Amino acid sequence: MAASVLMQSVIASQPSKTRFTNSIFPGNHLPRLQRNVNMRLRCKVEEGDKVKYQASELIPPPLQKVVDKDVSELTPPPTKKVSPNFIDVMAFAGPGPERINGRLAMIGFVSAIEVEIIRGQDLFTQISDGGFQWFLGASLLLTVASLIPFLRGIGPAANQDPVMNPDAELWNGRFAMIGLVALAITEYFKGGALI
Predict the structure, then answer these.
(1) Whether the Cβ atoms of residue 169 and residue 159 lie closer than 8 Å to each other
(2) pTM score > 0.70 for this model?
(3) To pair with 70 at 20 to 30 A between CA atoms, which of 102, 123, 135, 161?
(4) Measured between alpha carbons, how far is 64 from 66 in angstroms, rounded to an integer?
(5) How buried is residue 122: exposed, middle or buried, by Cβ count under 10 Å (0-12/13-18/19+)?
(6) Which residues of the chain are modeled with pLDDT < 70?
(7) Please, how many CA atoms are within 13 Å of residue 170, restricted to the half-sphere of its CB?
């Protein structure tokens, strides 16, 4: 009986902007949305700018202890520290290899393009004309400089800048590795400098 009254009121209703809402819940058949009175909280600031949340009298005593905690006690969990062991840092899934190779590839790609623009030499000519010694020196210097923070237990997630963050460094290093290999292959098949 109630269903037929509801259906008759849906069919008899006139179309409007909120036709879908009115057809499901006609004006006099809206459900009652009641608030949960037992979950009220009051917030106030105390001396020393420490914020405390006080529960109203309606919250049971076991929950009042949870709600009345000081905000300074609710600190986020500490970030994952890097193991200062050399083997852990340089493991396959460790933080060292991809970062070090990415940093070397970024410097190598920019240097290869720069020398190619200035001197007009391709990558293989640059390596054979004394570039290999520069490569070894830069590799040793950057590897040691990259390993020092890791061996002290400082992870790469120390800086959370939206632009210059550890994930951006990883992706830039990956693209530089791909770019350096693509440059070498392109120059090999072309037989000379790219630019």
Answers:
(1) no
(2) no
(3) 161
(4) 5
(5) buried
(6) 1-82, 157-159
(7) 9
